[in-house]
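RECORD CONTENTS
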Amino acid sequence: MPETHHCDLAIVGGGLAGGLIALAVAQRRPELIVRIVDAGESLGGNHVWSFFDADVAKEDRWLLTPLVCHAWPAYDVRFPAHARTINQPYYSIESERFDAVVRKALPAEAIMPGRKVLACSPTAVVLADGDRIEAKGVIDARGAGDLSTLEVGWQKFVGRTLDIPAGHGITRPTVMDATVTQHDGYRFVYLLPFSPTRLFVEDTYYSDTPSLNVGALNRRIDVYAAARGWEVAAGANDTREEKGALPVVISGDFEAYWRWGGAKVAKAGARAGLFHPTTGYSLPDAVRLAVLIADAKDLSGDALHTLTHDYARARWDERRFYRMLDAMLFRAADPDARYRVLERFYRLRSGLIGRFYAARSTRADKLRVLAGRPPVPVTRAVRALRGIK
C-alpha cells in the first residue's frame, strides 16, 4: 500500500548539494525530521569533488572537515610555455566517504535511496512507487535544469583512478596539464595522487558540445600514462571511472531557468544555477547555501523558496564578469588556441587565482585579468561581449 512520509524538510536529490544540506541541518538543527530521497543507491553517486583552500570560508569549514579524504599543501599547472607550482592547499572528497558521513549523521529512515521522484511542490514530493512525502518545506537538488534557457559551452571529462604498482612519482595535484595534444577545444589532463600507487587521471575539454566519446578519452588516458612511463595494473584494478559535462555559462535568462524547475519550489545546486560560470564547479556554493539553510529559522516551503531564489539570483547578478570571460573563451578564441587564455591567467598572482575560483574576484582582480593585450583577436573579443546577460 502507498505510504505517506511526514517530515520537516524533504531534500530531493542526494548529490553534493542535497547531501551537504542534510548534513548541515543534522548538525545545526538535530530536532528536525529530515528526508533525503535519491534515485541512486548511494548518496553522491560515483564522484571526486575537489576544492581550493580559498573556496570555503574558515567559519564554514566544519561542514567539510569530516568529508575530506586527501589534502595537499600546493598544486601544479603546466602549459606549453609556462609551468608553475602554486602554494595554496587543495583538497579532495570521494563519494564513498561522502555517503558514509551523511548516513552516519542522519537516522536510517531519513535516507530514501533508489526512489524515483515524479514531481515535487513546495511542501510535497510524489514518488514513482506511489509513496508521498509531506513536508513543511521541500528543496529540489536534482541537478541541472533546462539549459536551453542559457547559452553555454561545456567542460566535459572522463576520469579514471589508476593502480600503478611501481609508483607514479606525483606528489601533489596537477590541476591543469595543457602540454597534451589539443582536441575538441581546450584540452588538459588533471591529476590527483591519492597514494604513491593510486592516481586519479582525468582527460578534460572546454568544448562547444557536451558529447563524449568515452572510449576515445579512455584511450587518451592510456596514452598519457604510457608517455609518463607509468605501468598501469590491468582493468580490474581501476578503482573508479567517472564522466560528465559541466555547463560553462556565457549568457542567459536566469528567471526562465529557475521557473523551469517549478516557479515556487526551493532549489539548490545546479538546479538553482549555483555553479561557477567558468569552471562549472558547485562545491563552494553548495557549502555556503547549506550553512545558510541550516541557520535559517523558517524552513517552510515559501520561506525556503525565497531564501534559495534570492541567494541564487544575487550570485547570478554578481558573476557577469565570469560570463564575459566565457564569451571571450568560446566566442572569440579559436578552439585549438583556447589554452592560451588559461596560460596567461596562470601567470597572475596566486591570491587572484584563488579568489577567481571561489567566484569572489575583487574589482582590482577583474582589472588585472583584463589588463594588457588580450590572448584573443581584439575585434572578436569586442563582438563576443555583445548581449551578455
